[in-house]
Amino acid sequence: MLDSSIAKNRRLRHFFTDLLLCSDADGNVVMTKDAIANRIRATLDEVEWGLKELMKPDPESLTPDFDGRRIVPLDGHGYGWKIVNYTAYRDIKSDRQKREETAQRVRDWRAKKREKEAAANGPAVDTLRGQINRKVAQDPLTKANNSALRKLNSSVKRPSVREAFGSPPPP
Fold it and tell me: Do residues 70 and 9 lie in contact, with contact meaning Cβ atoms separated by under 8 Å?
């Protein structure tokens, strides 16, 4: 917008920015002139001037749709305006959005690649190790042995460092 043909007119550019803020997700401003004036804290004369200016054909506009007009009246309402290029500019993806989408595609592709490799090579070693560990842990004999070891360890008196190694040498 700062590089468009309305950038020359600061007042009009400001009004257009306010109108964008009043629009819905499709670029429709379904409001009366009075409602717009109340919302953007402007006089009714300023709103009428801005709407009239934005509905004029603009030969310098880079978009030839609607002869370069920025807004057109909404059909069937009796009030309200459609911002002509709203959806086109809304759908332009930012560099960040493009990077995030690319990163997600790469993650998905790598995950599919790993799945194919795992299917071709059989179960992974970690998977087999995990299965063995789970079976051993569920074995009643292993559970009993672990329980007995815990009891034995808790009943054994362990010597202190001083008892084990004696008193430290004199300085």
Answer: no
